[in-house]
Structure formats: structure tokens, C-alpha cells
Design goal:
Length: about 160
């Protein structure tokens, strides 16, 4: 049974917003998405098959089947929408996934957001050499919205 089969079509489609929401939440923290951040998003999709979280992997690979990825990205950019959607998506995920799968999925999404924040700029926060204060705050908000335990034991790719 694939992870996708645990969700209705409507639920799965709502989950497709998450990688873009995590990306844009951090990338737009300082006002604009720069080339290095956008390249980091492309890199995440290029490495989709190697993501440790089965949920994140299936979601990214399914998104790659979409006819117009830019339209999907544009439809899911926005900090306000991400904050409003978070409680419902968190509730859905905690109902449908076990604690371990939820934790690994959220940590994987968060790691992708962190990699986006660390892709460019000159940082002045504790998160990384290139992470700005605004991006650091955005990362902290994501940790709180989804109750992500950070740092996790296993993140990134296999």
C-alpha cells in the first residue's frame, strides 16, 4: 500500500501544497525569492527519489507528474495561506500517519526549508551561515505550526 492510498484524492491534493508552502514561507521571509533559493527548490525535486521520508518522497514524485509545476508553485505561494492551512493539514497528517511517519515527514519538509534559507544571503542568525533573521524567524514559525521536533535523528536523503 502506498502512502497516497491512505488519503482521499482531495486530501492528497491539499498535501501537495506543503513543499511549496514550506519553501515560500522561508524564501519570502526577506521579501523575495532569489535565484539560489529557487535553485534549491529545483534541487529538492531533482533528488526526490532519494528522500528518506516515504511520505515526502511520494508527494514530491507525484508533484513531478503535474503538467504545470510553475502554476502549482504559484498557486501555493503565500505565507498567510500557509499559516491558515497549517492546523488542518497537521490534524489530517497526525490522523492518517503514525507518529514516526509524521515526525520524519515534517522534519524532512523542515530540512528542505532550512536548505532554502541557507542557499543564499549573508546570515546573522544562529541557524546557519547564510540564514537571515527573517528566515530564522520563519523557520521557528514552521517548527511551532507543525510541532516539529528539531533536530531529528534522521533527515535529508538516504
Amino acid at each position: 500500500m502506498s502512502i497516497k492510498e491512505k488519503f482521499t484524492a482531495a486530501e492528497w491534493n491539499s498535501l501537495k501544497a506543503l513543499p511549496f508552502q514550506f519553501f515560500s514561507f522561508v524564501a519570502l521571509a526577506d521579501g523575495e525569492v532569489d535565484d539560489e533559493e529557487f535553485e534549491q527548490l529545483r534541487e529538492q525535486f531533482r533528488n526526490a527519489a532519494f528522500v528518506k521520508s516515504i511520505v515526502h518522497r511520494e508527494l514530491l514524485l507525484d508533484i513531478l507528474q503535474h503538467d504545470d509545476l510553475m502554476a502549482l508553485l504559484k498557486a501555493n505561494i503565500g505565507r498567510t495561506a500557509a499559516v491558515k492551512a497549517a492546523p488542518g493539514l497537521k490534524s489530517l497528517l497526525t490522523r492518517k500517519l503514525g507518529d514516526a511517519d509524521y515526525s520524519l515527514f515534517m522534519s524532512s519538509l523542515f530540512y528542505s526549508a532550512y536548505e532554502t534559507a541557507n542557499a543564499s544571503g549573508v546570515g546573522n542568525s544562529g541557524q546557519g551561515a547564510k540564514v537571515s533573521r527573517e528566515e530564522d524567524f520563519a523557520l521557528d514559525v514552521l517548527l511551532g505550526l507543525y510541532e516539529i521536533k528539531w533536530p531529528p535523528e534522521n533527515i535529508g536523503t538516504s
